[in-house]
């Protein structure tokens, strides 16, 4: 069984080394729509794959990090990176280029890490990310699957290789959320009192 949750954000970037002259030389923005598709082989006590309400905490926070932020590849020109950090309170440093393809990989990677470190307490089992679709424009999107995240030919993803501005972190429900993720700490879903018993 699969479920889909839609997230939206506005983001700016430069996509270095791409074929389009406009995209690789000028800061520009997009209104992104992100489809997060989860799957499981059983349903929880509420007969859901995963309660949509649970996606409003850490997973929503980390995706919302992109909203009204500038993203840059950490291998870009140091002067450009310094200017991004100086003139934008919201920024994310990525170990890969900020393309739609990499956004889909990064969001898949983050969401799966959060799920892996979440203690599920309402009968959820084997909940995983099936796919992430990053709509960059009305006519174009990139779609990522688990094998794409693991494919180092597309760029290695490691939690410690991402950096968030202080403004981004302060707007999370828990400003230490990413530090806890790196440390392997457990996220715990809220306890549920069952109203109907099988």
Could you explain the architecture of this structure?
The protein has helices at residues 21-25, 58-64, 78-87, 100-116, 146-150, 166-170, 177-183, and strands spanning 2-13, 28-39, 69-73, 91-94, 118-119, 128-135, 141-144, 163-164, 187-188. The mean pLDDT is 97. The radius of gyration is 18 Å and the shape is globular. Helices cover 28% and strands 26% of the residues. Helix 2 packs antiparallel against helix 4. The protein has 198 residues and is an alpha/beta fold. It has a seven-stranded mixed β-sheet, sandwiched between helices. Strands 5-9 form a two-stranded parallel sheet. It has seven helices and nine strands, in the order E-H-E-H-E-H-E-H-E-E-E-H-E-H-H-E.
Beta-strand content: 25-35%
CA radius of gyration: 18 Å
- Can you give the helix content as a percent range? 25-40%
The strand line-up of the biggest sheet is 7-6-2-1-3-4-8
Kindly list the characteristics that best describe this protein.
single chain, 198 residues, alpha/beta, two-stranded parallel ribbon, 7 helices, 9 strands, globular
Helix/strand layout:
Elements: E1 2-13, H1 21-25, E2 28-39, H2 58-64, E3 69-73, H3 78-87, E4 91-94, H4 100-116, E5 118-119, E6 128-135, E7 141-144, H5 146-150, E8 163-164, H6 166-170, H7 177-183, E9 187-188
Parallel strand pairs: 1-3, 3-4, 5-9
Antiparallel strand pairs: 1-2, 2-6, 4-8, 6-7
Helix pairs in contact: 2-4
What can be said about this structure in brief?
By secondary structure, the protein is of the alpha/beta class. It is 28% helix and 26% strand. The longest helix is centred in the middle third of the chain and has 17 residues, at 100-116.
């Amino acid at each position: 069984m699969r479920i889909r949750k839609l997230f939206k954000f506005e983001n700016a970037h430069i996509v270095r080394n791409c074929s389009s002259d406009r995209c690789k030389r000028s800061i520009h923005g997009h209104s992104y729509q992100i489809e997060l598709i989860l799957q499981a082989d059983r349903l929880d006590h509420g007969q859901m794959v995963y309660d949509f309400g649970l996606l409003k905490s850490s997973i929503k926070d980390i995706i919302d990090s992109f909203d009204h932020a500038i993203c840059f590849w950490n291998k870009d020109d140091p002067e450009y990176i310094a200017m991004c950090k100086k003139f934008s309170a919201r920024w994310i440093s990525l170990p890969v280029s900020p393309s739609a393809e990499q956004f889909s990989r990064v969001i898949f990677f983050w969401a799966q890490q959060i799920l892996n470190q979440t203690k599920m307490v309402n009968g959820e089992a084997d909940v995983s990310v099936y796919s992430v679709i990053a709509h960059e424009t009305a006519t174009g999107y990139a779609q990522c699957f688990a094998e794409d995240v693991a494919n180092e030919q597309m760029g290695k993803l490691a939690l410690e290789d991402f950096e968030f501005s202080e403004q981004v972190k302060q707007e999370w429900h828990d400003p230490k959320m990413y530090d806890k993720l790196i440390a392997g700490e457990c996220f715990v879903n809220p306890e549920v009192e069952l109203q109907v018993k099988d």
